[in-house]
Design a protein that fits this description.
Layout: H1 6-9, H2 15-26, H3 31-35, E1 37-38, E2 44-45, E3 81-87, H4 91-102, E4 108-112, H5 120-126, E5 136-140, H6 145-158, E6 168-172, H7 174-181, H8 188-201, E7 208-214, H9 216-219, H10 225-245, H11 250-253, E8 257-263, H12 267-287, E9 299-304, H13 316-331, E10 335-337, H14 350-366, H15 380-402, H16 406-411, H17 414-431, H18 455-458, H19 480-496, E11 500-505, H20 509-524, E12 529-531, H21 539-548, E13 553-557, H22 560-574, E14 579-583, H23 589-594, E15 599-601, H24 607-617
Parallel strand pairs: 3-4, 3-10, 4-5, 5-6, 6-7, 7-8, 8-9, 9-10, 11-12, 11-13, 13-14, 14-15
Antiparallel strand pairs: 1-2
EC number: 5.4.99.2
Keywords: Cobalamin, Cobalt, Isomerase
Organism: Ancylomarina euxinus
Length: 620
Amino acid sequence: MADNKLFSDFAPQSTQEWIDKITKDLKGADFDKKLVWRTNEGFNVQPFYRLENMDDKAFMNTYPGDFPYVRGNKKDNNDWLVRQDIIVEDVKVANAKALDILNKGIDSVGFVLNWKSINKEELATLLEGIYMDCVEINFAKSHSSVELLQNLQALATEKGIALDKVKGGVAIDVISGFSTVGNYCQSEESAFAYVKEAIEASKALPNYKVIAVTGSLFNNSGSSIVEELGFSLASGAEYLGRMIDAGLSVDEVAPKIGFNFATSSKYFMEIAKLRAGRMLWANIVKAFGASNEAVCKMYVHGETSNWNKSVYDPYVNMLRTQTETMSAVLGGLDSYTVNPFNSTYEQATEFSERIARNQQLLLKEESHLGKIADPAAGSYYIESLTESIADEAWKLFLAVEDKGGYLAAFKAGFVQDTIKATAQQRDLAIATRRENFLGTNQFPNFGEVLETIPDSVLTPEDKTAADAVCETLKPYRGAQAFEALRNKTDIYAKENGRPKVMMFPIGNLNMRKARAQFACNFFACAGFDVEDHNGFTSVEEGVKFVTEKNAKIVVICSSDDEYATIAPELFEALKGKAILVVAGAPACADELKAKGVENFVNVKSNVLETLKAYQAELGI
């Protein structure tokens, strides 16, 4: 091979030399404040990482398939199962749908029973034509999981299928149930006794999960990634401890636990979350006394998050679910569900389900993301995120353990208070557009109208029982507040017409264009009828135009210097016929307020609260 002079031509640069260069380019701005990102997860993210950042990470010396499985459970691939759920109302109809989607690329089916009981004959009908040794079969929301396990085993035996080939799970999660309802169907003792009974009933099905740790509950309640992971690990440890106390061994219990995580839009952090989760869970199970390292593997089923999905401009949800799926797959998991783009506000359609299936199939069959073990390995950034998330999640896990475990911490309100604090921060970030929801709080579709949205779609999901012994978690969507705001205008417009918001561009061409664009985007988030204009040559011309348009709000868009004279003149000319708003935060704001101009919108505005106030002023 010929000598490559590339590296000799460019001398290596130290980290400090890079920092010095960046600091110089910042021209006096603070490096940490300008470039270091403080995350909701409780740690800082640096603007760049280098090989030297990998020196102290012990997990870098492991291979895929090796303990603590940070690099994946599999040694030679990153394959996963493509799952789709089916709501079972009629077993024959559900069976027909299952056979149809299995022919379209699905290899994991989830039957959602909605707390119905099905007997052996009905189960046989439901699974007719499905090869139980080739397809993962899951059940959710079953009223009789123990009987279901027994019938499933009997059917497999009758068909001559080896029981170790039957894969899937029944998703029992009494801890999640308590967290959402605030109590148990009967008692805590009977709930965990039922979990033990289910584990024992599934002994002959070694690859069939019984316990589902529903981390997606935390995610969809507004938690951070660290909180989702930390509280999920604490829930898993609670199950281990309770079952061991009930007489089972860790080797019997751990393989029966599956973790269900939701994937948010934080692309790189979601990759790191799964890697960190496997590493921490492996060490937790080992600490409980597992006899071999294989028992310490974390089984993960993932799904796209509901928290960041929107009702308005819903096709944007496809973009969100695609990036979420990719990050989850790169992080490594066993199966994944893409929730259809419209599933948050209506029953999924054949079209939306097809799109959801194909989103995974594209990544698997065309991008070949299942072929390479630990595809994220070696990225200095992702490896550093893995360590940071693991460190913070472990701190949270220990804090929960210090309070007596997950259930004790939940009854004391620690879990709820922690998640609520994060959710409130995120809600504020959405209200001020520091966290963007495309089509909802940023760049809305101006012409979109949704006149009928069920109240349940616009409010948190509250399943709290009348006899709840503590506060519960209430999943919601971050876009709900803006959606309720806009829907309020949509409903008002049916009988009263849609309030007109007119831009009043005047003066400096560049400033008026930029501020008009900003203000149009701002007021369209409330569903107002927003109209821009090329620009007025005088206040008189503009007032005549906006008055004829019957504008309820007039937004003056100009330069700071021109506001001092034009804004008061426009305010007087309007004579209270419309609300005058200044786009920007001019230095002369106090002077303008003294002259009666009191309304301003700018990048520091709380968009949600500001628009609510204008709705109230307009009588909406």
